[in-house]
Amino acid sequence: MTSSTLFDLAFLLAAPFWVLLILAPGWRFTDRIAASPLPMVPVLAVYLVLAIGVFPQLWAAVSHPDLAGFQELMRLGGGAGALWAQVIAWDLFLGQWMYREARTLRIHPLVMAPLLVLTVLLSPFGVLLFLALRAAARRRARPARRAAPDAAG
Fold first, then answer.
1. Is the torsion defined by CA of 7, 13, 16, 20 positive or negative?
2. What is the DSSP secondary structure assignment for residue 150, as one 8-state letter?
3. Against a cut of 0.70, is the pTM above it?
4. Residues in Cβ contact with 90 at an 8 Å cutoff, skipping those fewer than 6 apart
5. Can you tell me the mean pLDDT for 108-117?
6. Considering only 76-85, 91-100, 134-143, which range has the smallest mean pLDDT?
7. What is the pLDDT of residues 123-140, one digit of tens each?
8. Opening angle at CA 69, ends 95 and 87, nearest 5
């Protein structure tokens, strides 16, 4: 397989799981998928295939990070593809965590869907917005817990 094909494959392997998180929240199968690290494994396999092909350059870029080293790595098809697959796997990990946290905090799926889409496309923005929403949801839940009668009392 070419680097270009593997680059495309990284997202295609993650896309079905994103569809479940966004469009089928609350479905028992979605909850099970969101709790498992297995959806990331195929994407990480793509990463490994691409990373092995450019390992000397990858190692140089990560062991002595500087902008020039990463720019050189990105010029290589396998280097850009490996970094893309790593981002896709990480984004999926974040999306699964956000999904589970939202379910725990009872954040409505219609609120989460746009945040998950944003996380797929621009994960730092999606995650930062989710962290703010999560903090607000936790503050809102705290008084409700205090108002509940104590089991001993």
1. negative
2. P
3. yes
4. 123
5. 98
6. 134-143
7. 999 999 999 999 999 999
8. 10
